[in-house]
Design brief:
The structure holds two protein chains of two kinds. Chain A has one domain: ABC transporter involved in vitamin B12 uptake, BtuC (Orthogonal Bundle), CATH 1.10.3470. By secondary structure, chain A is mainly α. In chain A, strand 1 and strand 2 form a beta hairpin. Chain A has a two-stranded antiparallel ribbon. Chain B has 15 helices and no strands. Chain B has one domain: Orthogonal Bundle (ABC transporter involved in vitamin B12 uptake, BtuC). By secondary structure, chain B is mainly α. In chain B, helix 3 packs across helix 9 and helix 3 packs antiparallel against helix 13. Chain B is about 70% helix and about 0% strand. The longest helix of chain B has 30 residues. Chain B is globular. Classes of the chains: A mainly alpha, B mainly alpha. Chains A and B meet through helix 6, helix 7, helix 11, helix 12 and helix 13 of A and helix 6, helix 12 and helix 14 of B.
Chain lengths: ~325, ~350
């Protein structure tokens, strides 16, 4: 019973209901949105890449930081993926995954080291690396473009094939989500991330390894963006120097919509994942409902603002309830 | 947005003579860097020393310079406005759509400015009255305003503008190579500099950035000040949008996408602390000019425009990391004596 009660009280439930509502409305308008093999597949497949970025972003935001460079990291690792297939013929696919994830983690390490050691706000640092990584990407790529013919068929199949009707990409994203969720919810290091985000100074005085944990959070975010880069290459088959541009704001948006407080210390990766699903699904549902797809970004903006206003209202109500409890006792 | 305890603020050491204080300030460091870049590129880059370089330099960075003015004040209060480039886009589209509908440019421009004012008002309302963090709010309105702009025009563009106005946007002052828009920038820069550095309102802006609570207790109207700043940011961004539209003779939904990052980079490079409470306008103007000059020097030297992004990013990081490294050095130097310089100075007084 408690689990059921908690489910209905959880912040994530509202977003989940909104997601279900969007899917239902779109399906009523056009049944093939859900009840066709392609529709069902796209519903699960399209949000997968953003989901990975949103999970990484949530972990970083929980520590009261932000990682604006994820879109640029995705672009770099997506190009690296294609480059490896071209320059090293016959390279095993798992090795490509490892290389790109490691590259993403290294870029995340740069962010983390600058934030944790130089004690400069993450917003500034990752704004800088957003530029710098994208610039390096454009320098490296130039007007070059990786085409699907450059990559092995087995790899591209990853982006389209399914297992038990569930796309492989979605399965990968969900596995990452479950591991991250489990880690943050049960593990000591995961809980420490929340403590650091709630009050960095207190966490430091308490003896938590603040610097180390923040560093790791950025490395994880970078590594997940690296993984997202490989999957991007597999899913779309073409990579140019503009891959992943502006994705960082969507990732932050997904996390915020999912109830991850922008000032750290609260929220879950589940929420961020549902937020990513909601963002992408709304974008796909709008044309079906009859709204021109040009208006998608406006809707996203309204969603983000609605979500933070909702969080504020809930927080005020919670504070009042706690005050009443104190007065009663 | 930091994970460490707020760094102990170091105040400028007033025990030192004025010339030394001015010389070691952040603003003068950026101005120095700007001068070095200008001198070095005049000698090493062909065609850099020509007047036309300066014309295009100012035409290109005018929107950044304009928006950097209110952004400086906002960041000094410890807030941020990420939605400015979207306001540029929305005002550009407003101007285009209304002009296409038969409204003269003057009227359409006034409406565009009002749209900018409303955008700023919505930001200000959510941040000061609802009490939401500005970072989250303006990420939301960044998407919202851009979405409205793209929604209104779709993928089409309005390119029919009265020649008089498009010429005016590109015109120069008399026979000089200085574009007329510089007059606008100089006037607004003087207004903002007076507002920030010589009025009670401006002192309030600094006070809010150092400690909102202390500011409130000493009589600064914190909410009202911030609200006004977001209104200013909306209007100036709309003004930049009008200029942008006329200069390129094209109103598009995706005009000036990503400009907010360049503006914030210029402000932070100019020595404004992202924690609030520190920074000044001369430094910011020099920071924006530094980025613009480097970009145009590199472009003339046939370096692809993409390197400029790397340089902007690296400059931004280097400037903040450098500041923090210097602060760390200073505390280390102070440690052996046991008493930091700051407390010595305060003990004297």
């Amino acid at each position: 019973m408690r689990v059921v009660g908690n489910f209905f009280k959880a912040r994530e439930t509202g977003i989940l209901l909104a997601l279900v509502l969007v899917v239902v409305v779109a399906t009523v308008k056009n049944p093939s949105f859900l009840f066709s093999p392609d529709g069902f597949r796209d519903l699960l497949l399209t949000p997968s890449i953003l989901l990975l970025l949103a999970v990484g972003q949530a972990i970083v935001i929980i520590t009261r930081n932000v990682d604006l460079s994820v879109g640029s990291i995705l672009g770099l690792t997506a190009y690296l993926t294609g480059r490896l297939f071209i320059d090293v013929p016959g390279i095993p696919i798992p090795l490509v995954f490892l290389a790109s994830i490691a590259f993403g983690a290294a870029l995340g390490l740069i962010n983390g080291a600058l934030v944790a050691f130089a004690k400069v706000p993450a917003l500034v640092i990752t704004l800088g690396t957003l530029y710098a990584y994208r610039g390096i990407n454009v320098l490296w790529t130039g007007s070059d473009r990786i085409n699907s013919s450059d990559m092995p068929k087995d790899f591209l199949a990853l982006g389209t094939s399914s297992f038990l009707y569930i796309p492989l990409l979605t399965i990968i994203a969900l596995i990452v989500l479950v591991i991250a969720g489990w880690f943050l919810y049960t593990q000591r290091a995961g809980r420490e991330l929340y403590a650091i985000g709630s009050d960095p100074a207190a966490a430091n005085l308490y003896g938590l390894k603040v610097t180390q944990r923040v560093l790791v959070a950025f490395i994880v975010s970078g590594a997940l963006a690296g993984l997202a880069g490989v999957l991007y290459a597999a899913r779309y088959g073409t990579v140019n120097s503009q891959a992943g541009v502006n994705l960082e704001l969507q990732a932050v948006g997904a996390a915020v919509i999912g109830g991850v407080a922008i000032f750290g210390g609260s929220g879950t990766v589940w929420g961020a994942a549902v937020g990513a699903f909601l963002l992408v699904t709304i974008n796909r549902a709008l044309p079906i409902i009859g709204v021109q797809d040009f208006w998608q970004r406006a809707v996203v903006g309204v969603l983000i603002i609605g979500a933070i206003v909702l969080d504020r209202v809930l927080a005020l109500r919670q504070a009042r309830k706690l005050m009443e409890m104190r007065d009663d006792s | 947005m930091t994970t460490q305890a707020p760094v102990a603020r170091t105040y400028r050491d007033y025990g030192q003579p004025l010339w030394r204080r001015l010389l070691i300030s952040r603003a003068s460091a950026v101005i120095g860097a700007l001068l070095i870049v200008i001198v070095v590129s005049s000698f090493s880059v062909k065609a850099f020393a020509k007047p036309i370089t300066m014309t295009y330099l100012f035409l290109d960075i005018a929107p950044i310079l304009l928006i950097a003015l209110p952004m400086t004040l906002i960041i000094i209060t410890g807030e941020i406005d990420l939605s400015v480039a979207s306001v540029v886009g929305l005002s550009s589209v407003t101007l285009g759509v209304l002009h296409q509908g038969g409204m003269p440019i003057e009227g359409a421009a006034v409406v565009a400015l009002i749209v900018g004012l409303l955008c700023g008002a919505l930001n200000g309302f959510l941040i000061t009255i609802v009490g939401l963090p500005s970072l989250a709010v303006t990420i939301g309105t960044l998407a919202l305003y851009r979405g409205l702009a793209v929604g209104l025009l779709g993928t089409t563009a309005v390119t029919e503008f009265t020649e008089f106005w498009t010429d005016l946007a590109k015109s120069k002052i008399g026979d000089t190579a200085i574009p007329s828009v510089v007059i606008l920038i100089v006037v607004l820069a003087i207004v903002f500099a007076i507002l920030l550095h010589f009025t009670p309102f401006g002192r309030g802006v600094y006070a809010i950035g150092l400690s909102p609570e202390a500011a409130r207790f000493s009589g600064v109207r914190v909410e009202r000040t911030k609200f006004i700043l977001f209104l200013l940011s909306g209007v100036i961004s709309a003004l930049a949008g009008i200029y942008y539209t006329l200069r390129f003779g094209s109103a598009r939904g995706d005009n000036a996408t990503g400009l907010e990052l360049s503006v914030i980079a210029a402000v932070l490079l100019g020595g404004v602390s992202i924690f609030g409470g520190r920074g000044n306008l001369p430094g910011v103007l020099a920071g924006a000019l530094l980025i613009g000059t480097l970009a145009s020097a590199l472009r003339l030297a046939n370096v692809t425009s993409d390197v400029i992004n790397v340089i902007t990013g690296t400059l931004l990081i280097a400037s903040v990391v450098g500041t923090s490294f210097l602060a760390w050095l200073r505390t280390r130097r102070a440690r052996p004596g046991g008493v930091p310089r700051e407390s010595l100075a305060s003990a004297k007084s």
